[in-house]
Every structure is written in structure tokens, then in C-alpha cells.
């Protein structure tokens, strides 16, 4: 399993920084809500309803039962508004949490860098697998392999069981 760890602030072995952000349902979710109860797969993605992000979200959706069986919750995070997340989740029947990081504070806190592409600058696509104790167990960064994020996360969760 090859993994590219971004040059970010949060690395494997670190305690994942807590945050509180609005969800697509208008509630506020905090990472600490899951501590001691569930692992969390926290994935940062560029934008709702774009080709790569839709592929990634639908692959998470299609594998959601696998994540639940592995004792994990999936949380997607982008700078889109809670209202945009609601439309995106509804359109694609996404069963997991989407949170709005409109000011990009959590993206910066985790060190998720923007990536330069032939289309310009895009927000990075990085997935963090966080165990029940809040420790980061895996980091995977790939802007152009959205499905690989799901494979990497499930593999990490299963190897921890």
C-alpha cells in the first residue's frame, strides 16, 4: 500500500485536532463527539457536485455499510455551505455527515494544502483515519484518485480490528 503523506500539520500518530462545524442538516458536529465511541474517516474534498468529488462521495456511500461494520463514521468536509451540502447529499443519497468549513479553518488546522493543476488551484483531497481514541492512524492524499481514498480507509480500519 503506497501512501503519500502531505506536508501538513497533522500526521500519523498525532491526536486529531477537534473542531465544531455545521452539518448539511443544520446541526453542529464536533470530532470529540465520537471519541471513545467510533473511529472517524475524515475526508477533505474540493467541491460538492463536481466530477471527482461526486465519484468520491458516491464511493463512500456505496461502501458506507463497510465503514459502519468497521466501527467508523464518515465525515466529508469542504468549504461549501451547509445548504450546498444538503443539496449534494440529497441528490446522491449520501448517508454520512458533510460539514461546512466555509472559512477553511479546519482545512488549515489539518494542513490540507491546495494543489496546483492544469485547471488552476484546487483545494486538496486528503483523508484522515482517526481511531476511537482520537489518534490519526492513516493519512492519504491524492487529488486525482478519489476512489483510492475509500480503499485506503477501509484497509486501515480493517487492519486495526
From TrEMBL:
What are the residue boundaries of the Thioredoxin domain, all occurrences included?
Answer: 10-161
Q: Which GO terms describe its cellular component?
A: cytoplasm; thylakoid
Main location per the UniProt record: other
Q: Which residues form the active site?
A: 53 (cysteine sulfenic acid (-soh) intermediate)
CDD domains registered for this protein in UniProt: PRX_BCP
Sample GO molecular function, one term: thioredoxin peroxidase activity
Under which name does UniProt file this protein?
A: thioredoxin-dependent peroxiredoxin
Q: What organism, scientifically named, is this protein from?
A: Dictyobacter kobayashii
